[in-house]
Write a structure and sequence with these properties.
176 residues, mainly alpha, 6 helices, globular
């Protein structure tokens, strides 16, 4: 029963990655870039809960700005950039550089950090939990990029615009 609970938590933690990868899938990233992005998200979903378990309580005392505000700013900037690029009708490639990939993985893994703080109440096997989170987030990210690509190839410009709107709405969700 413990593994099933952890698996469902992993699915829940992967929903951010799925929704954002659907938005980024419209950009038609190459297979190599999809694998790199999905793998990076998987690594972050492995490491972030471990950081959460070990550092969460300490960091909570010293961080002055709420992490939700940071996530809001990142999502808002990415969403606005996508909107402006959709209106320019030029092709820009996102997530092609190291920093873009790391930011994406970090943003969708913040919930895993928080989950790491409370996971000790569900399981004592922290590595197993992190591994399950990692595998589920990799799968959901890759799946989102594929589905987003299929949607994007049919509805390229409108889907970039819609993706930008979704990211902006997603950013607002983090404020409340």
């Amino acid at each position: 029963m413990e593994i099933l609970s952890i698996f469902f938590i992993g699915i829940g933690l992967s929903m951010d990655a799925l929704s954002l990868s659907l938005c980024y899938g419209v950009l038609e990233l190459s297979k190599r870039k999809r694998i790199i992005l999905s793998s990076t998200v998987g690594v972050f979903h492995f490491v972030m809960p471990l950081f959460g378990m070990t550092l969460g309580n300490i960091l909570e005392k010293y961080i002055i700005i709420d992490i939700k505000i940071i996530v809001y700013i990142i999502f808002m900037l990415i969403g606005l950039e996508m909107l402006f690029d959709a209106m320019k009708k030029e092709t820009n490639v996102y997530l092609t550089n190291f920093i873009g990939t790391i930011l994406f993985a970090f943003v969708v893994s913040i919930d895993s950090f928080s989950a790491g703080i409370g996971i000790k109440f569900i399981s004592n096997n922290f590595l197993q939990c992190s591994l399950i989170f990692s595998i589920t987030s990799f799968c959901f990210t890759y799946m989102g990029l594929i589905v987003g690509r299929v949607i994007g190839s049919r509805f390229s410009e409108p889907s970039k615009f819609i993706g930008g709107i979704i990211l902006i709405l997603f950013s607002l969700m983090y404020l409340f």
